[in-house]
């Protein structure tokens, strides 16, 4: 089974993705991660304004199989939270790189992006 | 708003009795609720069934279920096992209901049983001292790790890590974290056991303890236990024994002899007390002489002509009210004394024999062995959960599924010492029948049970938690 690994994203070993657009980083979990978790039934996300450091746990994803923490790939201030997930957690399964996004951060340090995995490196990890 | 409250008063004979007459009631002023209007209501709709309706309701629920008294139940000691019911009779006796506040001198019989049970459990585990206070296995774990922590602190040797194999029970990780330790997860070796070399690499001067279950979750005995103990002790750490699988060793091997310093006993897995399901339970903890000074307060010791409570010198304090959940401990005592040394050794032999007999009869592969009282078969290429649902259609309860994760599509099976050969054959027949069935049949199972397949996703996303939900379906 092959999983979607979009070329325009960066990845964490713990299966989060990050998309950077003009100083803002949008974060979610990967197609592989949602498949491993199975049907997501609950998502807990931080409040806007919260300061995150790369590696911090910022949320919780609960599926029928497991409860998992979600980690911040980069440091920054939370500027947006995908509140749609509170009512429709299945968006994480249906569209992990789109409608299933979790938080938006105002990037504190663009250099941190260099430490993240490229699509190829992440593809190798989940192969 | 006014509430009436029955008052309790001293009638002069130092006996307290409720005064129920209208006159004696005292009116208490209670302020109106400060909750906003949209969160309050004037009336409460509660079900109002007649008594026979209520009795039938619960009987019907019990008939829809499958329990240990319905048929073979290979979830094993970890989840649910059949326990002989004589222990219930013992704990229901009026003498068992002593008030915990009574002075030592008036409950000498109870304290004598406590003291003897401490002694019996100590001898069974090879431990020098045992506390009966912790109220459950997980609470015992927490108590044991707190004792280890107190020991290191007492020696001015604060440590930060607890090492736990990846096959361990989830409570081990939770215990270590609750006690403030960082968890170092130890990958299993290729044979499913602890790899001593990986252990050497993981253990160091920050290691407070290694938590180990032996035999482990795959039912495998840690053959290198003496070397494992040396590695941990040489680094200054303690060896913690998780008593989850002690029922495989009863009367045959003792954690204390293997080098363990602290252990908890799961009396519901090993000594026929019921599974708590929320309690009350008991999780006694055994320690070596060196650690006895840290045991919870109070402890029971023999005194001149009797028994008394005392506080160990460097006690970690209380972990539960009074001296633990006495009726549960009494069941433990009843079971241990009824079986005796020979009976306990026979129980472990039967637990191991039953698991090995059953594994021989089933068509699924068992990748790791030789195993003791439980084995983990692989349902692959079938989905373990589907296979399990289908077993219900064949009249038996399925084993634990999809755990431990080191076996693909795990069917973790523990028939326990209590089952007869006839029951084991019935289980084996169900395993065999399911093994030969097609995916379509498995995916739609169960079909012969009172409730069909539960939609787990819908149940989690939109739970209906009221009695009306059940009502609307009938």
Automatic annotation (TrEMBL), chain A:
Cofactor descriptive note: Binds 1 lipoyl cofactor covalently.
This protein's record includes keyword Transmembrane helix: no
GO cellular component: a single term: cytoplasm
Keyword flag DNA repair: no
Superkingdom to which the source organism belongs: Archaea
Keywords: Lipoyl
Annotated signal sequence range: none
BP term (GO), one: protein lipoylation
N6-lipoyllysine carried by residues: 65
SUPFAM superfamilies referenced in this protein's UniProt entry, alphabetically: Single hybrid motif
PROSITE patterns: BIOTINYL_LIPOYL, LIPOYL
Co-factor(s): (R)-lipoate
Annotated Pfam families: GCV_H
Domain Lipoyl-binding: 24-106
Binding partners and assembly: The glycine cleavage system is composed of four proteins: P, T, L and H.
Family note: Belongs to the GcvH family.
Described function: The glycine cleavage system catalyzes the degradation of glycine. The H protein shuttles the methylamine group of glycine from the P protein to the T protein.
Name of the protein in question: Probable glycine cleavage system H protein
Organism in which the protein naturally occurs: Haloarcula rubra
Automatic annotation (TrEMBL), chain B:
The keyword Oxidoreductase is assigned to this record: yes
Pfam annotation, one family: Aminotran_5
Key words of the record: Oxidoreductase, Pyridoxal phosphate
Domain Aminotransferase class V: start-end pairs: 147-276
EC numbers for this chain: 1.4.4.2
Enzyme kind, highest EC tier: oxidoreductase
GO molecular function: glycine binding; glycine dehydrogenase (decarboxylating) activity; pyridoxal phosphate binding
Domain Glycine dehydrogenase C-terminal: 347-441
Biased composition (Basic and acidic residues): 1-10
Segments of this protein annotated with the region Disordered: 1-49, 435-457
Name by which UniProt lists this protein: glycine dehydrogenase (aminomethyl-transferring)
Gene: gcvPB
